[in-house]
Amino acid sequence: MFHLKVGDAAPVFSALNEKNETVSLTDFKGKKLVLYFYPKDDTPGCTAEACSLRDSYEVFLNKGYAVLGVSPDSAKKHIKFQDKYSLPFSLLADEDHAVAEAYGVWGEKKFMGRTYQGIHRATFIIDEQGLIERIIDKVDTANHAEQVLS
Q1: pLDDT value at 110 more than 90
Q2: Most CB atoms within 10 A, among 70, 73, 101, 150?
Q3: Domain range summary for the chain, segments of one domain joined by +
Q4: How many CB atoms lie within 10 A of CB 130?
């Protein structure tokens, strides 16, 4: 499914965050970025993943990382999700799934005998030069921060 690999240039993106501000990959030039894709706000796995990253947010900042989440949910849903769980990082509203498609994480999924299109949970660690340093495609939602930092 993933067409990107370690060492590739991270696809450039622009999307609106929860504050309706445009966020682009270029905003993170010179910084390391944890770009994580998740299916849906306020579901058990996605909440566990976001809270894991939230709980280690200061560690990420101290190590020079920015954290950015991406899902197909609206900015309005992101605001509720952030407020409910005190998430300190931005969430991109990728409603047209353009960012997910650029990173190769939008595709066919199966759940309870149903096939549909959606985001495959994955995290891309992008270095200061905009190159993919690491890809985590088997996300442990409850321990995701530890996975990223190890």
Answers
A1: no
A2: 70
A3: 14-149
A4: 17
CA distance 132 to 126: 5
Other CB atoms within a 10 A radius of the CB of residue 43 amount to 14
DSSP states of the chain? -----TTSBPPP-EEEETTS-EEEGGGGTTSEEEEEE-S-TTSHHHHHHHHHHHHTHHHHHHTTEEEEEEESS-HHHHHHHHHHHT--SEEEE-TT-HHHHHTT-EEEEEETTEEEEEEPPEEEEE-TTSBEEEEE-S--GGGHHHHHH-
Active site residues: 46
Q: pLDDT (tens digit, 9 = 90+) per residue, 130-143?
A: 999 999 999 998 99
Instruction: Tell me how many degrees the CA angle 36-77-79 measures, rounded to the nearest 5.
Output: 80
Question: Does domain 14-149 fall into CATH 3.30.70.3550?
Answer: no
pLDDT tens profile 14-38: 999 999 999 999 999 999 999 999 9
pLDDT in tens, 61-100: 999 999 999 999 999 999 999 999 999 999 999 999 999 9
